[in-house]
Prior knowledge:
By secondary structure, the protein is α/β, with parallel strands linked by helices. It has nine helices and nine strands. Keywords: DNA-binding, Phosphoprotein, Transcription, Transcription regulation, Two-component regulatory system.
Amino acid sequence: MRRKVLLVEDDELIREFVSDYFKKEAWEVYEAQHGKMAMELFALHPVDLVVLDIMMPEMDGWSVCRKIRQQSDIPIMIITARVDDDDQLMGFELGADEYVTKPFSPKVLVARAKALMKRAEGSIGRGDDIAQFGALTVNKRAHTVTIAGVPISLTPKEYELLLFFIKHEGTVLSRDSILNGVWGMDYFGDHRTVDTHVKKLRAKLDTEQHLIQTMIRFGYKFEAKR
């Protein structure tokens, strides 16, 4: 089946350029020129990925990201000219999975989108299909996480982070090692990105008191700040 992407960008030239590259890779593309149109298209068409600009008329990308995340755990990539660390952290706090700054190569953007989809579809974390930690169960084949049988909704990046902790159970992990392992060597964000995602992941998992100890077993033993 063809993957479907909702591309939200108010600059017509950028939108058409990026859209062409997605189509060359056999993606079906829905285009929106502002946030209000994006939400209308999102309600009408099931998509696999949202690529979202921030500075737009009628409804900005922050608002769109927040609204989509309230409804769905679909992967979200933010593209923007805003390069401040605080802006990137804002995106991640709202639930974005990738943050790409302008100018960028459309070819590389599509490659990163494909990589994100592979992770979201569960092609990472190979090994035993079921990981059990107390009341926490991770089904890698089905890409599901449950606590005492209750489904836990995780974004693709939160799920990838959880699998990284499981893979390195009992290992002392630095923030740098987590950035490299989960975000990749080419990611230029700072350590606050790790802290933000771990905080959100723990908030979702800490519905039972003993799960804090479970997270420690995963390797959440950050090196002391210098």
